[in-house]
């Protein structure tokens, strides 16, 4: 019955705010709006638009020929269209003092404006097994979502359902790869050699009171490394590159089918916005497209500045890991000393997660929008002047996603591709000069450069990804549901209770709209970019699922489970805890499709780099085919990787330690008689610590594999994209038949 409700405080008669409110409502009345006033602790104004507005909307968006036939021949417009048109008119109505609704909200003339939920429709959503937890595995009623929330939100849930469905396939493959890794734990020749290396003395991990240690101490860590770093991982990375392409191509086909059923395949956003502008003001002149190179340059510089800040934060996390490693190594607790590296990685991952949460809140805080303001307040968007809401949203999406990507992945990129690339023992001072001058150290030079675990950097990457992914998909979802639920409960308690009537008095009839308006007002507020937050969360998850999948095969499994919950969580929030979102028309998911395609290409590059640089897959293959017993033909009874560990370790003479090197007073039993040599993971000569020929062989093999993997994977992606048409033939034929019928 009422399209929108405007809420304001009760102002004094004759005050400036009261006069401004009256002018705005009078302007709506001139356009034929029906206005109903209800007074409680707040002042509520229900508005309903006249029917001529919707008739004009339908007539303008008809084909040119049908407009000439009968302009008065109209059909009822859907509720979602009514709300969208009224929303546009409310926020573009200009009273005599030239202050629009968003300006009046800033000045506290109005507090908020929102469309009302429909009671019967809410019950239908529950009956259709959507907005409740127990129906987590039921199919979504996309058609009902569209008729209640509009096409844009319906497409989001259709995309999320499609993504979750295909994640089920990827999760099965990922689980099989992970199980394969577990079954190969005890059979790995490399793990066996590490576990038996109880006489191999390794160099200290720092230069201040860090002890010598035995390679066999890392037995468990080595088994975990092989569980991830095996032949199956390489295959899975290739499969996921194909999966990402198939997912997007099949989604394009599914989307084309859905929007064709909605008669929106050839819908034009610009045409609809122009139509609503003409309805609101017949004398309106369309805003022209503009481009300013100066403004674009400012935006690029600001983006680069923000990226530099995020990289600086990633560097701070690296410094934390260095300091934590040193502190844990010198701890009084034996358990902490023995697991110093693992604890440093774990606590660093947890700190990275909280950094992501804080930075996300900070970035979204810059775009704190009043309910009606469609202009993002972000510093990076203020120099731009997009013509339409869709353009604003696209610009906003690209920039915020860029920041979120660097916030989430800068630390992972450092661990995967830079951490441990320099020498891992104290002789780096002899090889590369004074390490105090290097960027990885501080002036006091208390620590060696940041290192991976002796079993390899891929285990560190696995721990980092597993920790962040699990925290994001448990703690974050818990908070995402709990905060609006508690807020809703608290607001519900503040609802005025109905007073009991005194005996003999007649009960005053209460307006039937009052309680429903109040209950809608007490729901959590939404803004035009609320759906953006949901999309961003899922696209970041998609990035975790594809870009570093070679280091964490279980990512699709966790994402699949999370999405089953996420669909119901978003549904419950929208139906029960939030005010009704303004329905928006759309025929695709917008700029997010291009973002997903870019992530697919990054996934190929990222996984190729992980396998080539981070993993030990290439060094083991080089050893297997050039230096192993199988290659030399000395023994066919031995495993082809026999002797790999000894071959991959270099020797360092303890007399070459730097003068400031300090060993702990209490040395392990095996080192009390004195240690003249220790081992470290590198390919260097024992005499002058220069690179061996083996180092260059491995380097060439890594580079060759990277080029081959990326070219093959990208070729497969492009062939798959060509092989699967974006639009089904049935949709093309349907559109062709419609055009033919129209011409006849």
Description:
This is Anoctamin. Residues 145-735 form the Anoctamin transmembrane domain. This protein has 744 residues and is mostly helical. The chain has a domain at 4-65 and 74-116. It is 58% helix and 5% strand. The chain is built from 27 helices and eight strands. The chain starts with a strand and ends with a helix. Residues 64-69, 367-379, 423-450 and 498-508 have low confidence and may be disordered.
Task: Give a brief rundown of this model.
By secondary structure, this protein is mainly α.
Strand content: under 5%
Mean pLDDT: 82
What's the overall geometry? elongated
Cross-sheet strand order for the largest sheet: 2-3-1-4
Secondary structure category: mainly alpha
How widely separated are the two ends?
41 Å
Q: Describe the biggest sheet?
A: 4 strands, antiparallel
Task: Count the E strands.
Answer: 8
Give the radius of gyration: 32 Å
Helicity, as a percent range? 55-70%
Unreliable sequence segments: 64-69, 367-379, 423-450, 498-508
Count of individual helical segments:
27
| Oligomeric nature of the chains | single chain
Protein name: Anoctamin
Organism: Tinamus guttatus
Domain Anoctamin transmembrane: 145-735
Family: Belongs to the anoctamin family.
């Amino acid at each position: 019955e009422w399209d929108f409700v405007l809420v304001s405080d009760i102002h004094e008669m004759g005050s400036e705010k009261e006069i401004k409110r009256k002018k705005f409502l009078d302007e709506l009345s001139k356009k034929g709006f029906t206005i109903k006033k209800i007074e409680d602790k707040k002042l509520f104004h229900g508005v309903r638009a006249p029917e001529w507005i919707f008739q004009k909307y339908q007539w303008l968006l008809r084909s040119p020929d049908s407009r000439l036939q009968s302009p008065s021949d109209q059909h009822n417009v859907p509720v979602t269209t009514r709300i969208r048109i009224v929303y546009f008119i409310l926020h573009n109505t200009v009273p005599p003092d030239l202050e629009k609704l968003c300006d009046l909200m800033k000045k506290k003339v109005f507090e908020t404006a929102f469309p009302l939920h429909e009671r019967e429709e809410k019950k239908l959503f529950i009956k259709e097994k959507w907005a409740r937890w127990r129906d987590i595995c039921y199919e979504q009623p996309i058609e009902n979502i569209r008729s209640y929330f509009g096409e844009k939100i319906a497409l989001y849930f259709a995309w999320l359902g499609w993504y979750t469905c295909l994640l089920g396939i990827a999760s099965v493959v990922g689980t099989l790869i992970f199980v394969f890794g577990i079954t190969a734990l005890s059979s790995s020749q490399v793990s066996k050699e590490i576990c038996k290396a109880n006489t191999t003395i390794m160099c200290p991990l720092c230069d201040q009171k860090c002890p010598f240690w035995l390679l066999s101490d890392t037995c468990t860590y080595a088994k975990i490394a092989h569980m991830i770093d095996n032949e199956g991982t390489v295959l899975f990375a290739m499969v996921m590159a194909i999966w990402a392409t198939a997912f997007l191509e099949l989604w394009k086909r599914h989307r084309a089918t859905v929007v064709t059923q909605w008669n929106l395949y050839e819908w034009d956003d610009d045409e609809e916005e122009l139509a609503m502008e003409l309805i609101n003001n017949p004398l309106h002149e369309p805003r022209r497209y503009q481009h300013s190179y100066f403004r674009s340059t400012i935006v690029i510089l600001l983006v680069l500045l923000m990226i530099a800040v995020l990289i600086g934060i990633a560097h701070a996390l690296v410094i934390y890991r260095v300091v934590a490693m040193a502190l844990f190594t010198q701890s009084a607790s034996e358990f902490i000393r023995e697991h110093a590296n693992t604890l440093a990685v774990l606590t660093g991952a947890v700190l990275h997660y909280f950094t992501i949460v804080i930075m996300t809140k900070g970035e979204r805080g810059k775009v704190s929008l009043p309910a009606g303001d469609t202009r993002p307040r972000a510093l990076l968007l203020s120099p731009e002047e997009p013509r339409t809401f869709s353009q604003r949203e696209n610009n906003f999406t690209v920039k915020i996603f860029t920041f979120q990507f660097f916030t989430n992945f800068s630390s992972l990129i450092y661990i995967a591709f830079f951490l441990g690339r320099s020498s891992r023992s104290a002789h780096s001072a002899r090889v590369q000069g004074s390490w105090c001058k290097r960027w990885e150290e501080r002036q006091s030079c208390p620590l060696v450069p940041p290192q991976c675990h002796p079993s390899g950097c891929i285990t560190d990457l696995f721990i980092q990804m597993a920790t962040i992914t699990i925290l994001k998909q448990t703690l974050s979802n818990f908070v995402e549901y709990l905060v609006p639920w508690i807020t809703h409960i608290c607001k519900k308690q503040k609802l005025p209770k109905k007073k009991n009537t005194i005996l003999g008095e007649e009960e005053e009839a209460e307006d039937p709209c009052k309680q429903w308006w109040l209950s809608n007002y007490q729901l959590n507020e939404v803004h035009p970019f609320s759906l953006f937050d949901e999309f961003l969360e899922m696209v970041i998850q998609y990035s975790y699922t594809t870009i570093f999948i070679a280091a964490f095969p279980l990512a699709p499994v966790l994402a699949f489970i999370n999405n089953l919950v996420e669909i119901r969580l978003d549904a419950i929030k929208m139906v029960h805890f939030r005010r009704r979102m303004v329905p928006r028309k759309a025929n695709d998911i917008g700029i997010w499709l291009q973002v997903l395609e870019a992530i697919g290409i990054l996934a190929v590059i990222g996984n190729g780099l992980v396998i080539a640089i981070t993993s030990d897959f290439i060094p083991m293959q080089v050893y297997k085919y050039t230096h192993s017993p199988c290659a030399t033909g000395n023994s066919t009874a031995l495993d082809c990787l026999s002797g790999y560990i000894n071959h991959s370790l270099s020797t360092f003479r303890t007399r070459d330690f730097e003068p400031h090197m300090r060993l702990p007073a209490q040395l392990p039993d095996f080192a009390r008689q004195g240690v003249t040599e220790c081992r470290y993971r590198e390919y260097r000569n024992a005499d002058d610590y220069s690179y061996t020929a083996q180092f260059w062989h491995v380097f060439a093999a890594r580079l060759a594999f990277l080029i081959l993997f990326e070219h093959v994977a990208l070729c497969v992606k492009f062939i798959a994209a060509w092989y699967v048409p974006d639009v089904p033939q049935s949709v093309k034929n349907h559109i062709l038949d419609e055009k033919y019928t129209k011409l006849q």
